[in-house]
């Protein structure tokens, strides 16, 4: 009987590992974030560019996403990584919990970069270690992938302002939402083009049942997914960034994970559903 219990336990752990490994959130920093930080930093040093990386999207003017905050992350290991965030108020921002702890790598400080197309220079830069992850964040299942960042007071201007949190029961299915970020523009991207700037992409929200066909153990009621057909998607480095209803200044999702096959594979992209976490986030503002 003891042997049976041990075998069942081992199978459960193995299944959880396989469930987590299909996503890009588990061990995010060592698999994606650190490499993106090195690539972006080298490219910024080599080129005079305006910088960012959504797959299949279009360049956006700096003021198009004034709530978008880049995150330069100092890991406890000594490496640097990158993510995105959304500014909610003069002193608060929201990101993905896996940007702070991905199940293996612990961050020790965020530098929030606002009003800038570059990640490693320019804009308003605020360093903080005041980050609160959702208490039920689970890196293996990627459930409750939300964290609130506290900043020193930031002034608003044409390039820096907050975004409102979605509330209520709207599931936004079949609506078009806009993702923005500083991540890679393709799975194979190495450098950054001379005219590269912040990018944005419009993506259609799909049902959670459709999303579960790809991620049967990682999609919950608190997840919101988009289709990524036509080579359009979020990609490495976009984690924690916004999914918003275009022209409404309404945040409906926080970039959580894609598929390990890559951001151009046509698999759904998943986000933390803001309506599910509205009360928890507001309780920390």
UniProtKB/TrEMBL annotation:
UniProt-recorded name of the protein: Peptidase S1 domain-containing protein
One Gene Ontology cellular component: extracellular region
Report the coiled-coil segments.
none
- Signal among keywords: yes
Transferase as a keyword? no
Q: Which PROSITE patterns match?
A: TRYPSIN_DOM, TRYPSIN_HIS, TRYPSIN_SER
Functional summary from the UniProt entry: Fibrinolytic activity; shows preferential cleavage of Arg-Gly bonds in all three fibrinogen chains. Contact with the caterpillars causes severe bleeding, due the anticoagulant effect of the protein.
Q: What is the superkingdom listed in this entry's lineage?
A: Eukaryota
The principal localisation class reads secreted
Subcellular location(s): the record lists: Secreted, Extracellular space
GO biological process: one example: proteolysis
Q: Note one Pfam family from the annotation.
A: Trypsin
Of which family is this protein a member?
Belongs to the peptidase S1 family.
Endpoints of the signal sequence: 1-16
Concerning InterPro entries, the annotation shows: Peptidase_S1, Peptidase_S1_PA, Peptidase_S1_PA_chymotrypsin, Peptidase_S1A, Trypsin_dom, TRYPSIN_HIS, TRYPSIN_SER
UniProt keyword list = Disulfide bond, Fibrinolytic toxin, Hemostasis impairing toxin, Hydrolase, Protease, Serine protease, Signal, Toxin
> Which intervals hold domain Peptidase S1?
54-285
Q: Per its record, what are the GO molecular function terms?
A: serine-type endopeptidase activity; toxin activity
